[in-house]
Structure formats: structure tokens, C-alpha cells
Amino acid sequence: MDRTDVLRARLATQRLAGPPADGPAQVVRELLCVQSQDALLAQAMIALRCSGATDGDVRASLASGEIVRTHVLRPTWHYVAADDLRWLLRLTSPKVESGMGSRHRQLSLEEPLLSAALEVLAASLAGRSFTTRNPLGAALEAAGLLTRGDPLFGQQVGHVLLVAELRGLICSAPVGTVEHQYALVDEVVPPTPERDRPEAVRELVGRFVGGHGPVALSDLVRWTKVTLGEARAAVQELGDRVEKVSVDGEELWHAPDDALPTQRPQGAWLLSTFDEAFLSYRKVPWPRSAAHPAGADPYRFAEAGGGIVLLGLEDVGGWKRTRARGAVQIRLELDESLSRADRRAIDDAVDRLVSAID
What we know:
Layout: H1 3-13, H2 24-31, E1 33-35, H3 39-48, H4 55-64, E2 67-71, E3 77-81, H5 82-98, H6 101-106, H7 113-125, H8 133-142, H9 153-166, E4 170-172, E5 182-184, H10 185-188, H11 197-212, H12 217-223, H13 228-238, E6 243-247, E7 250-254, E8 268-272, H14 276-279, E9 306-311, E10 314-324, E11 327-334, H15 340-355
Antiparallel strand pairs: 1-3, 2-3, 4-5, 6-7, 8-9, 9-10, 10-11
Helix pairs in contact: 3-4, 7-9, 8-9, 11-13
């Protein structure tokens, strides 16, 4: 396996060039978690991995309760299958939360205030009383826990909700609206069996390698909160389910039984900055074209609303999503040396993305 084989395999196994998924829930399960702070664009990225799907189909999966949106793995939003939620939170949340201690002290969000705030959230949402962030902030203020006049009020509310998600108290409500609503986990996510930590790590590593491979274990450790030692132990325990390959001097892992063939060689793809096929890989990443408009400047991964343009197996530029008169428009910044055929392939990719956005 060489670099070209690795990049092709990733596109196929992530169902961008491989056979389309049956629906959004299958995409999320195979990827285990799909980063979604830019929720609408994440929905479009999921839809592109299915046949004829749109972001509306992803919202339908949320409304059905098949998938939820919450903070898991890292202190950022993800889509996750409902039946994977609890074990992933138990595995990763303690380390995520411990890493935010200094920030919570800056926000005056230490115990027992946090515990009292979570009780307010639980009472506000009980009985499937789904609601948005603002009413929950008002409830925290009414309880005398936070003060709206405090310049940190908005950040405090956000971090209280974040902690409530990490501790498995709340997640997204099963509604199909664009605006995010919250629900109590115990009221919308059925119970699932507990796993001990070694079993959970083994499941996480096997699923990550199966959905993202070929991939480095260091990329897995960056992706979630397990140690490199745990990851190495897990691949040994997984045995023949995973296989090591050396590419450009890097040790990568893939799951041969989970590999998919290339069935949709579409020529070009527009990927979100936060898409799993772009953000996941620091080892053997997508190469840039010689005349890339960004030159050698690094990507700013805090940016939303756009991403990279892949042509074949090369990053040839960037794109941004805008709206004009209610219609989605895509602004491109491309390598100026591209041929007309290259630009036609990219135009096709633009059309596919726009079609995936309701």
C-alpha cells in the first residue's frame, strides 16, 4: 500500500467514493462520531455519503431518535448513534471534563454550583419538555445561580450545558427543527449495556480504524480521549480485525474486512473543514497542489461554513457557503492552473453539495 492507495481507500471506506450508505444513521454509526459544530454543513456532509439524501434526511434521523447531537469525545459537538452515546460518554467524558478545570474556575463554575445548575436543567426538561438554550439560561438565572448582567453569562450557560452533556444528563431532543433543542438523555435514549474500560477502548479503536482507516493511532488519540498505550493494547487484542501498514515511514492501521470498493469515482469533492475525511488525518494527509491559493499557510480549523476542494486525491483550493435571496451559493478559491476538465469536475461537486442542502 502506498500514499495513493491510502487516500483512495479513505474516500471509499468513508462512502464518499465507495458505495453509498443506506441512510444517515448508517453513516454516523460507521464513523462512530461526526463532528458537528457547524450543524447544517455536517448534515450535508452526511447526506453526501448516502444516495439522493439531503440535510433534511439527517434531521429526520434526529427526529426519529436514531442519532443525537451532543458534546462527546472532545469538548465539541458531534452526531452519534443513540445506542453508542452512553458508553462513549463513560469512556471519554472524565478526561474531557478534567481538562476544562481551569476554564471553569475562570467562569466561577465549580462545585457545588455546577451540581445545582444540573438540577435546574433536569427540572426544566423533565417530562420531555424540550427547549432551546435561552430558556434554560433564564431558568439558571431565575434559580439565582447565574446573573444575566455578568459579561460571562453567555459563556457560563454554554459551559453548564456542556458539562450536562458530558455527564450524560442532556442531549439533543428528537425533533426535526433546524434550531437545536435539548432533552433529558434518560427520556429520549433507551438504556444500553455498560462496558468496562478495556472493552470500550477496544470497541472504539476497532470502530475508528474500520471507519477511518488507513489511519495512525496518533490520529485516533487526537480524535478522542484515550491514551496511545490503550490504543496499542487494543489493536493487539483486535488481532486479525485490524492490520498494520507502513506508508511514507508512518505506521497506519486499517480493517481489511471493513474496506469498501471505489464505486463513485466522482473526480472532485467539496469537504467541510470539520469533515471526518479531512479533519481526522495528520499522518499522510491530503497533499496540496503546487499553486494552491493558500500556499503553505495552515488551515484555521475554527472556521465554519466552508472547507477544502479535493480534485482526485489533491487539495486544490477552498470554498465558502453563502446565501443570497434564500438560495445556497458556493464561493470557490482554486488553483489557477486547473484545466477546464478539472473545473467541470469541481462544478459537479458544487452541484452535489448544493443538492444536499435543503
